[in-house]
Every structure is written in C-alpha cells, then in structure tokens.
Design a protein that fits this description.
The protein is α+β, with helices and mostly antiparallel strands. The protein has six helices and five strands, in the order ααααββαβββα. β1 and β2 form a beta hairpin. The longest helix is centred in the first third of the chain and has 47 residues.
Amino acid sequence: MINRLKRYFISGLIVFLPLALTVNLFVLAVDFADGLLGKYLEPYFFEQFGFYFRGLSILIGIYIIILFGFFVTNFLGQRVFQYFEKLLIKLPFFRQVYPAIKEIAVFLFSSDRFKSFKQVVLVEYPRKGIYTFGFLTNDSADKICELTKKDMCNVFMPSAPGPFTGYIIMIPKKEIIFTNISIEEAVKFIVSGGVVNPH
C-alpha cells in the first residue's frame, strides 16, 4: 500500500510540478510585463476611461511592438532606424551593451537563427577521449591562424538542456570530426540530455 501511494505521488509530482512551475513563470512574466507599462497606463486609463484591468499594458505593448516592427521593415523606417542605431552605438554605455543584446535577440527570435550554425561537429572536449557535439560557426580570424600557425575554426559548444548557451572555442580544423547530423537533431539531443539520439 505504501509503495503504491509512493508510486502515485511520484507520478503525480512528475505531471504537476512542470505544470505548476510553467503557470507560475507565466504569472511572474505577466506581472513583470504589466509593471513596466502599467504604472504609466493605469492612471491614464482611469482618468480617461474610468477603468483599467491587469494585463492591458501587455496588449498595448504587443501592439506597440507590432507597429514598431511595421515601421522598421519598410524602406523609410529602415533608413531612419539605421541612422538612429549608428548614433546610439556611439554613446559610451550603449556601445558596449546594445550590439551584444541585439545579436542575442536576433539569434533567439529570428526564424533563421540556426543559420549561424553551419554544421554539427564532434570535438574532443573538455578533454581527450570525451566527445561533445559542437556547432561550427565560422573559420577563425586570419590573425588567430597566423599566431597559432594552424588552420583554426570557431566552434560553439552548447550546454544542456539550453543549447543556446555555452562556450566558444577555437580549435584546429584537423581535430574536428565533421558529421552529417542536422542542426535540429543535435538540438533535440542536447535538450533531451542525450535521451533522444540523432538518426
């Protein structure tokens, strides 16, 4: 009887815990997003319309983002934004922070984010005798190749279960094992912690 209850408890926990955490994270995200614009919109809406409900600022924020996206995708808006961006990256703080955040945003939200990865490779990492999946991103800079006197490549070494976080290593090309495994298969393998093997 105790073993059966224990099995039921563990089965229920496996189902309940991810669901509860996901709902909790969603509520926290709503609270955070609502707090960004809500403190400005709530007094305005009460004054103008006599009402305000939680989450309204998120809907307005989405609408603003869509409008902004529409503006920067047309020819004139793109030119204006490029000019503004050039001015922005000349400022001391923004010069260090903005380009990095933009690259991360493009990588995470772009539909062709996998294009940054050219090929799935195997590398003996973190030591000899242990093989790890990596994503070939580019050939190393000529200066690096000259300094090392080797034909070097840049390889992104992902961490599990988040394949978009990890380390960049520069490794001699002759030490890389090139595979015909697709990027999607490698990502599934990493996310699953090695449970889902690539075909």
